[in-house]
Design goal:
Length: about 325
């Protein structure tokens, strides 16, 4: 048998390699890790979310919330793939009201970064700290056990992601500067803040006293847009609510939508398009082009609008939003 024949033998990949490859399909850069963590925090019923980043989230990305927290008994399986509190059987997918349900976000992050968790439920007398590597509990320091340790902490969860892509050098090399990655983080936080005006958001760099994004919570969508994008925009927005509509085609579900769109008085050099489907931030070039076409005859050449669009089918979780 030639060496060429031997090298073409089909082999079963190592489990850690499989998980690292799978992680790369979910976590592309710091902002995509943050998106998953934000959705976890919102699912936990948080009303306050604070984000801190170092070197654009590559060296450190931290998110603190005041949500329901994680029970100590759940910590051993927290970062295993397909462990979730959202569903028990396939039929549960039809009644989902949460952002995620597959239990892959934290698992994926733990395979490409060092992950630590400090969490406390309202019924706990203390907080618990746990560290993870490759989906399982790991010792915080050499010589220590991997079991969760009691510690001081507030109600909610503090997640710290360090050295993202430390074991995937090709992915790390493909990313841009820390400054560029931080801009992407701010963009994600800004969009989720608009979509969740009742929640207070803060985002800043490590060691920085003042936040780059701050919202008070308990506000309206229009107020948050004015705060983050400027009053010159918010004064030119038109609110377009679309109440529950009949299914578009046979077999589909009823739907509703809500939009804040700029009128012809507002003109920008850049098209700002915020799209949420089932409350998840989505990118759709087809919908974006359709929106641009609507404004073509209303704005001068080179001028761009602002559009925030929320679309929600009443069938709780569309598989296209996964």
């Amino acid at each position: 048998m030639t060496s060429e024949t031997q090298s073409s033998v089909i082999r079963r990949l190592d489990e850690s390699l499989i998980n690292r490859i799978a992680a790369g399909e979910i976590i592309h850069r710091p902002s995509s890790a943050l998106k998953e963590l934000l959705e976890n925090a919102l699912d936990a019923g948080s009303t306050s979310i604070k984000i801190t980043a170092k070197e654009g989230g590559l060296k450190m990305l931290q998110i603190q919330d005041n949500g329901s927290g994680i029970h100590k008994a759940d910590l051993p399986v927290l970062c295993e793939r397909f462990t979730t509190s959202k569903i028990k059987k396939f039929g549960d997918l039809a009644a989902l009201t949460t952002y995620g349900f597959r239990g892959e976000a934290l698992a994926s992050i733990s395979h490409v970064a060092h992950l630590s968790v400090v969490t406390k439920t309202k019924s706990d007398s203390c907080a618990w700290r746990a560290c993870y590597n490759d989906g399982v509990l790991s010792p915080p320091k050499p010589g220590q056990t991997s079991e969760p340790k009691p510690c001081a902490g507030n109600d909610g969860t503090l997640l710290t992601v360090e050295d993202l892509f430390y074991n995937v050098p090709t992915r790390l090399a493909s990313l841009r500067s820390g400054a560029d990655e931080y801009k992407r983080i701010l963009d994600v936080v800004t969009q989720y803040a608009v979509h969740n005006p009742a929640v207070s958001f803060q985002c800043k760099k490590t060691g920085q006293a003042q936040s780059d994004v701050t919202t008070p919570g308990g506000a309206s969508v229009l107020q948050v847009i004015g705060l983050l994008y400027g009053s010159s925009l918010s004064k030119e927005l038109v609110h377009v609510p679309i109440d529950k509509q009949k299914p578009i085609e046979k077999g589909s579900s009823p739907w509703e939508a809500d939009a804040y769109i700029s009128n012809p008085n507002y003109q920008s050099k850049r098209f700002t398009f915020l799209l949420f489907i089932n409350h998840r931030l989505v990118e759709s070039s087809r919908i974006k082009r359709a929106m641009e076409a609507v404004y073509t005859g209303m704005l001068p050449k080179g001028a761009c609008p602002f559009v925030y669009l929320r679309y929600s089918p009443f069938l709780a979780q569309s598989l296209s939003g996964q």
